[in-house]
Amino acid sequence: MSELLRTPLYDLYREFPDARCIDFGGWDMPVQFSGIQREHEAVRTKAGLFDVSHMGEFAVEGPGAAAFLQRMTTNDVDRLVNGQAQYSLICNPDGGVVDDLLVYKRAGDRFMLVVNASNTGKDFEWLGKHLPDGVTLNDRSREVALLAVQGPHAERILARVTPEPELLSGLQPFRFLEGADICGRKAIVSRTGYTGEDGFELYVDASDAATVWRELLGAGEADGLVPVGLGARDTLRFEARLPLYGQELSDTISPLEAGLGAFVKLDKGDFVGREALIRQKAEGLKRKLVGIEMADRGIPRALYPVYGADGRIGEVTTGTQSPTLKRNLGLALIDARYAGLDTEIEVDIRGKRLKARVVPTPFYRRTKQDEGGGKVR
Amino acid sequence: MSEVRDGLFYSEEHEWASAAGGQVVRIGITDHAQCQLGDIVFVELPQPGSSVNAGESVGSIESVKTVSEMYAPVSGKVVRVNESLLDQPEIVNGDPYGAGWIMEVEVEGDVDTALGKLLTADRYRELIE
Known about the structure:
A: 377 residues; six-stranded antiparallel beta barrel; 21 strands; B: alpha+beta; CATH 2.40.50.100; three-stranded antiparallel β-sheet
């Protein structure tokens, strides 16, 4: 058993008496600081600060960098302008997902990839194996800390810790600033996140992370900024139907099955997995990821079997009681014949078959004009 | 630090039990257990009238993040369950030894004998330290 990894902020967690850490993909990470529901609600109505420094960052650079990424990822790298990021996937030749990631275009031949912590080693190896001459791949994960400020008050909180607040407020979704001044430290500031709310992600030098964390918490206190752990991060992303690798995505689940076709540009030219995905699309998807809601009393959880009239039709990938909606909801990867809205299915909850039905996703969608909360469907 | 209340009896699975008059034992989960679970959102209660055996699963308690089985600390018949937990499971977080009680079981033999098989408050404190 190897020792768990720690982010540069680990020693600050103990300042919160109710903070609890868990092993998350080999990292000793806070699952909560004060309580999952309270933290979840803070992000939906005010703001939350996340330490997500466990995420991996790779630098991909050189004259062939864009062509290399175009071949290794499913989204269209050629559509990116400098200062723009895109959500994308790395597929294997069978169309399964090696990882999902963000691709940041810093300059014509300079990119940053942000990958899942638990996949960092696998991704580095996979990309390295396909690396052409003239392109370099470097793992910067230990030098870079990543903090996320998420929620309707995120923009006004960040405006207090930068001399150029207008640059931040003008930042569109999936755009980023290089060398921004945050709490007197240099940061890459990107308008991205994993919560379904407005927000920013801040890439800072690992040695600056503690300063930025403390100053942000101080500056945001009046606006309700609280530290948020991975527990609420999971319920927040779940309500917004953002996939989590290892649950909605895996080496044997394709992005099409997971409902991520918008990020797979089959007409952009060749890329790893393209043939398999074209075939899958032509033959029709056999499985689909759907939203489910329990009709009987019970909470669906990951890996619980799902049944239809023909027997077992799949399994739950994520499930919980939605903290925002207080409904017992799940995402489930099931036989496509049962994927229609309102289809009645059953979930095997610890030996009991309980009734559920297919419902629309995302479960939660924020409204842009309403800062105070989101629209619920 | 979580509270361990003197005068109650405890199981190694983090339930508490106390004499509730006659042959009846009132049962709940400990402050330590609710603390470990976090925000409780769902309590699955046993059927009143059903028989339970000490050490066997009788229901479950779910937080946002996880599911935890609940075990009967004594054997007997379930005579009452705390139905207010169906709508307000968070009471278990707020008052685990009081309003957050879970069920009452009528034991067959002597109540003191049944409770005597469980841990005292001091022994339970040692267990969770």
